[in-house]
Amino acid sequence: MTDRTHSVDDVTGHRRMRRLRKADWQRRMVQENRLTVDDLIWPIFVVPGSDIMDPIAAMPGVFRMSIDKAVEAAKEAADLGIPAIATFPNVDMGLRDETGSHILVADNLINQTTAAIKKAVPNVGIITDVALDPFTSHGHDGILREGEIVNDETVDQLVRAAVAQADAGSDIIAPSDMMDGRIGAIRRGLDAAGHQAVGIMSYATKFASCYYGPYREAISTSGLLKGDKKTYYIDPANGTEAIRDAALDVEEGADMLMVKPGLPYLDICWRMKEAFGLPVFAYQVSGEYSQIKAAAANGWIDGERAMLETLLSFKRAGCDGILTYFAVEVARHLARKG
After folding, report:
1. In the chain, what percentage of residues exceed pLDDT 70?
2. 326: exposed, middle or buried (C-beta count within 10 Å: 0-12, 13-18, 19+)?
3. SS3 127
4. How far is Cα 86 from Cα 214, in angstroms, rounded to an integer?
5. CA of 33: how far to CAs of 28, 246, 273, in Å?
6. Per-residue pLDDT tens for 44-60?
7. Per DSSP, what are the bridge partners of residue 125?
8. What single-letter DSSP state applies at residue 199?
9. How many Å apart are CA 212 and CA 331, to the nearest integer?
10. Residues in the active site (predicted)?
11. Could you list the active site residues?
12. What is the structure's pLDDT at 325?
C-alpha cells in the first residue's frame, strides 16, 4: 500500500482538528454549548395607562407597555416557552421624590403589573427589581442625603419594597442597587413575612458601565441623574473586587447571581460560576442590544447571527441563562429551527 502520509501528519502527530468539522451532522454532534428557550429571561418596560405600546427610540423593537399589553406579552412569552419575565416600571414623574418612597406603595405600577400577569399567566415567572432609580427624582438607586447615597437607610427601604413585591406575587426579587448588606437584609425580611419560597437573584456584579444609556431612556431617568453611580457600582477595571462582592452575596443567602452588563464581562461570568457553583445569569443590557440593532440596520453586520453568537457566548462562559431584549426574537427563531 502506498504511504500517503503528508508532512502535515508528522507536524500534528496525526491529530487533525478539522476531522470533526467537515460535515454539519458532525459539528452538531460535538457541539459543546446550545442556546435554548429555557435560557431566556425577557425584560419588559411598563407604563401607566391602557392600550399603550410606546416605542423606545434608542432600542429598536422594544416598547414601553401598559399593564394590559404587558399581560399580552406575558402570554406570548408563555406560548413561546420563555420561563420568566423581568419587569421595569416607568412611573409618573410626579410620583418620584428624593427617597423613592413610591416604591413602598402596595399597588404601585410594578406591583400592579406583577399581580395582573400572575393572574392571567400563572406559569410565567416574574422577576422584580427593588432598586430605587425608577422612583427617585435624582435617578440614583438609593436615597440621596446631602450629596451622598446612604447605604443603610436605602437597605431598610429595599427590604420593605421587596416584601411588597413578594406580596404582589413576585417569584424572584432581583436587587440591582449594589448597596452593602442588602441581600442578607432582604432575605431576612422576606422570611419574616412568610415568603421563604421567594428567591433572590442578586445583581452580584453590576459595573459602572457606559452600556446602560438606552435603559435609562426607557425608564426616563437619563435626564434626572445627578452625578454618577461610581460610589456604589463596581469599577470596570476590577475583577477581583467583583468576585469579592459576589462572595458576600452568596454568604448572605443569594439563590442566583447576575453579571451586568454581559458581553464585556464574560470573564466575570466564568469566574463566578467556577468560584460559587450557583446559577449564574448575565444581563445583556440595553446598550449591547442597541449596538447590534444599529449595526444591523446599517448593514454592517448580520443582526440575527450577531444576536445568536453573543447569546451563545454567555452559555460558553458558564451562564445558566440570559436576560435579553432579544428573548422573543430568539424564541421565535428557535421555534422555527426546531
Report:
1. 100
2. buried
3. strand
4. 17
5. 10, 25, 15
6. 999 999 999 999 999 99
7. 84
8. E
9. 24
10. 206 (schiff-base intermediate with substrate), 260 (schiff-base intermediate with substrate)
11. 206, 260
12. 98
Buried-state track 283-304, b at ≥16 Cβ within 10 A, e below 16: bbbbbbbbebbeebeeeebebe
* Residue 313 located in a structural domain: yes
Cβ(208)–Cβ(235) below 8 Å:
yes
Query: Is 118 in a helix, a strand, or coil?
Result: helix
- pLDDT more than 90, % of the chain: 89
Separation between Cα atoms, residue 60 and residue 157, nearest integer Å: 34
Does the residue 153 lie in any domain?
A: yes
Predicted TM-score (pTM) of the model is 0.94
Q: What is the distance between the alpha carbons of residues 202 and 212, in angstroms, rounded to a whole number?
A: 18
Domain total in the chain: 1
Note the Cα 130 to chain centre separation in Å.
13
Exposed (0-12), middle (13-18) or buried (19+): which is 78, by Cβ within 10 Å? middle
Residue 110's domain comprises 38-337
Per the prediction, the chain carries an average pLDDT of 96
Q: What average pLDDT score do residues 180-198 get?
A: 98
Kindly report whether the peptide bond that precedes residue 261 is cis, defined as omega within 30 degrees of 0.
yes
182: helix, strand or coil = helix
Please tell me whether residue 150 adopts helix, strand or coil conformation.
strand
- CB proximity list for 80: less than 8 A, separation 6 or greater: 37, 328, 331, 332, 335
CA distance 141 to 180: 13
Write the CATH number for 235. 3.20.20.70
**Cell of residue 47, nine digits:** 407604563
Q: Which helix (H) or strand (E) covers residue 268, if one does?
A: helix 266-276
Longest pairwise C-alpha distance within the chain:
88
Of residues 297, 316, 296, 314, the one with CA closest to residue 305: 296
Q: Is residue 129 domain-resident?
A: yes
| Domain contains 245 | yes
Cell numbers for 300, please give them.
454592517
